[in-house]
Amino acid sequence: MSNGPWHLILNGKNANDETVRDAVGALRERGRRIAVRVTWEQGDAHRYTLEAIAAGASAVVAAGGDGTLHHVCNALAGTGLDAGALPAVAVLPLGTANDFARAAGIPEEPEEALDLVDRVPARPVDLVRVIPQRGRERWCVNVVTAGFATRITTDTPPELKKLLGGAAYFLTGMTRMGSVRAAHGRLRGPDFEWAGDFLVLAVGNGRQAGGGQALTPEARLDDGVFDLMLLPPPPEGEFAAALGALLRHGRAALLDAAVRRRLTWLEIEAEEGLSLNLDGEPLQASRLRIEAARGRLRMHLPAATPLLPDGEGSGRGAG
Questions:
Q1: Do 96 and 161 contact (CB within 8 A), yes or no?
Q2: Which NCBIfam families is this protein grouped with (predicted)?
């Protein structure tokens, strides 16, 4: 597929972005074949990705935010085809937070981001497979969250995100601090069991979510495991002190108390149900299984991306 055309799937919100138009035009002048598809409604990104496979595309460029990348990767992984039989994935970050792209070091300028696809060969990357007890399986390329972090993402108005970018998530979080309610769940994985209340649960294939919050800062894309972070609530009567520490010292003051593991699979039960967020896309479930899928896709990333340190493939193991 290396000689095939690129299919650029452009989020409809960015259809009139002249910098994208200029970048595509510059590549076409150099002989690169690029088909542009603009999303209009739910399901378009999935359908366009399948069309790219049928057309023999060598790369599918997710041009939008984390949600656009999520839908492209779900369409590719959902085919059941091996990574080598599928187009590689590339990212043109045009969203509000662009959490995956920023953690990966992908350039924000469209021409630089597209030039990366030409210069750097695609490499195998892991995905996280999410299997709810009811409903279809989903795939996550960046971070799965549940708890207070998910509520912040859901409650942040699109208008505020457009005005403030990633800072909108922080502002929403501060306005919701007085109504924080912990979730409750039971978790089980390899040599790991945990039950109790938590404010934030994060399963990281990537490193950050919610507009730059580094929830799983050591995660990488090629080790065959995901990073789990569980943040329990402060002891009863100490919430005000914890909030003060957050304001003085930042999120590190809370995340120091987090439970962290590296796992190949995880089962979650929550009798009251959980509102989860997969790359910014919602999922409701009370029981689910999460699995690390090693080398599920190929992706064009910067040669020195922090998410593939030193190009090593198996420097860490599950714990």
A1: yes
A2: PRK13054.1, YegS/Rv2252/BmrU family lipid kinase
